[in-house]
Design goal:
Largest sheet: 7 strands, mixed
Oligomer: single chain
Shape: globular
CATH architecture of the largest domain: 3-Layer(aba) Sandwich
Radius of gyration: 23 Å
Bound molecules: 1,4-dihydronicotinamide adenine dinucleotide, magnesium ion
CATH superfamily of the largest domain: Aldehyde Dehydrogenase, Chain A, domain 1
Number of helices: 17
Strand content: 15-25%
CATH topology of the largest domain: Aldehyde Dehydrogenase, Chain A, domain 1
Number of strands: 21
Structural class: alpha/beta
Length: 487
């Protein structure tokens, strides 16, 4: 780990194509949650820096280089950024693991390629966005133009820092917007590094500005800034609601991807071995700090006991270990506060009457770190707090159901609607249940699959708007109707 620290430079803000200090000169420390040690100091953006970044973005947009550039050139630059992310996947993976605590297997093999995949996929869209000709009246030639919004403020969370850079920035930039990006204060490092790589790829100054800093200061200033046309946000429900209200003053367009309490539903006729694996990765991948985590496991009564026994055994084998070890599959939670929150929920569940069948405790690695065991709570009632509230950690709540009706009712009995899983060998049941679940994504005989080409987002309190896929381009464009009189 020591040699890695040596290559971790202090983080700066990226404004108008330059790495700069905050106007106030303030910095904050980013920590490694696996060792509880500081990694480095990072410049802390304040309102003045937000204003500088927004002005730079506006200048690049309003008649600037990005607005004037041919789409084919934008495509080439964004594709090159995808290539650079892949070329730097070792470095980015290590930075992500140090900053966030997730296993290097995930950050190097999954997150870095996914971030690159976003730039490669959306690069192609830069040359394919088009309006329509709509012949509505003989006296007019009428058509639409699909135009960028202007300056997009992207506010992202700490659970998938570099993936979120790809999810938000790639479509926004491909559509011709400029971006001011604020990474989470707990995990700023990969966003800063990708900001540097973007300049290397040829992105003109001001097109992508990166402002590490506090949500309540830099994030708040972005949401209030009249020069920002849209906020795209992924994070907590509480902050999402706040952004919607605050953004109303300047009529901001908003996309919100918020929490989840996703049901992973196992029918008795499923391939139970595959379902046990899917239930395990569904909750323990990313330490359970995953908005779409399959945190409510709904199991059909007739196979419940057998299934839970297998699941508990698997969870006990999944022990927390050094995130930098390529064999590790369960890392450290992102912060002491997150760990306390998660352990608090384990206590809540037990006091509500749930039965702890695996894990439940902090388990430091080498005497340090915010590691929590893979935890399974059985005999959970869907009305308990551990079944209704987002825990955001490696804690699975197991709930029984009797039949399809009961599964659908319990599955939908949640304020959230981000994702769901269905495990069955019955193709009719799979399609029927997929339709009836109130969720933005449904996986059948699989869990936690993502692709830059497939839309992702929430129903109900999980938010609105979509990341990824062709759908996401609507979130970063607006339509102009042009009427040409031809008489
Ligand atoms: P958060 O919602 O505070 O953080 C997300 C982003 O919003 C960060 O970049 C943060 O700096 C920014 N932010 C915070 N306050 C802001 C404000 N007033 N204006 C503008 N931006 C602001 O999430 P936090 O506090 O880190 O985590 C709390 C809980 O939220 C977690 O325990 C988890 O349950 C949930 N969460 C859900 C995520 C998801 O992907 N759905 C991601 C992160 C957290
Ligand atoms: Mg950190």
């Amino acid at each position: 780990m020591t040699d890695m620290l040596a290559t971790t430079r202090p983080g700066k803000l990226i404004i108008n194509g330059e790495a700069v200090d905050a106007a106030t000169g303030r910095t904050f420390r980013t920590m490694n949650p696996a060792t509880e040690e500081a990694i480095c100091e990072v410049a802390e953006a304040g309102p003045e820096d937000v204003d500088r970044a927004v002005k730079a973005a506006r200048a690049a947009f309003d008649g600037g280089p990005w607005a004037r550039m041919r789409p084919a050139e934008r495509q080439r630059i964004l594709f090159r950024l995808g290539d650079l992310i892949l070329e730097h996947a070792d470095e980015l993976g290590r930075l992500e693991t140090l900053d966030n605590g997730k296993p290097i297997f995930e950050s190097r093999q999954i997150d870095a390629p996914m971030a690159a995949n976003c730039f490669h996929y959306f690069a192609g869209w830069a040359t394919k966005l088009a309006g329509e000709t709509l012949p509505v009246q003989p006296a007019f030639f009428t058509y639409t133009l699909r135009e960028p919004l202007g300056v997009v403020g992207a506010i992202i969370p700490w659970n998938f820092p570099m993936i979120m850079v790809g999810w938000k920035c790639a479509p926004a930039l491909a559509a011709g917007n400029c971006v001011v990006l604020k990474p989470a204060e707990l995990t700023p490092l990969t966003a800063i590094r990708i900001g540097e790589l973007a300049l290397e790829a040829g992105l003109p100054p001001g097109v992508l500005n990166v402002l590490p800093g506090k949500g309540s200061v830099a994030g708040e200033a972005m949401v209030r800034h009249p020069g920002v046309d849209k906020i795209t946000f992924t994070g907590s429900t509480e902050v999402g609601k706040h952004i919607m209200k605050t953004g109303a003053d300047t009529v901001k367009k908003v996309t919100l991807e918020l929490g989840g309490k996703s049901p992973n539903i196992v029918f008795a006729d499923a391939d139970l071995e595959a379902a046990v694996r899917g239930a395990t990765t569904g909750i323990f991948y990313g330490k359970g700090e995953v908005c779409a985590a399959g945190s409510r496991l709904l199991v059909e009564s007739s196979v419940h006991d057998e299934f839970v026994a297998k699941l508990a055994e698997r969870a006990k084998r999944l022990v927390p270990a050094d995130p930098l070890d390529p064999k590790t599959r369960l890392g450290a939670l992102v912060s002491a506060a997150q760990m306390e929150k998660v352990l608090g929920y384990v206590d809540t569940g037990v006091s509500e009457g749930a039965k702890l069948v695996a894990g439940g405790k902090r388990q430091p690695v080498g005497g340090k770190g915010y590691f929590v065991q893979a935890t399974v709570l059985d005999q959970v009632d869907n009305r308990m707090r551990v079944a209704q509230e987002e825990i955001f950690g490696p804690v699975l709540a197991v709930i029984r159901f009797e039949d399809v009706e009961d599964a659908v009712r319990k599955g939908n009995d949640s304020p959230y609607g981000l994702a769901a899983g269905v495990w069955t060998r019955d193709v009719n049941k799979a399609h029927a249940v997929a339709r009836r679940l109130q969720a933005g994504t449904v996986w059948v005989n699989a869990y936690n699959f993502y692709d830059a080409g497939m839309p992702f987002g929430g129903y109900k309190a999980s938010g609105f708007g979509r990341d990824l896929g062709p759908e996401s381009l609507r979130e970063y464009t607006q339509v102009k109707s042009v009427w040409i009189s031809i008489e």
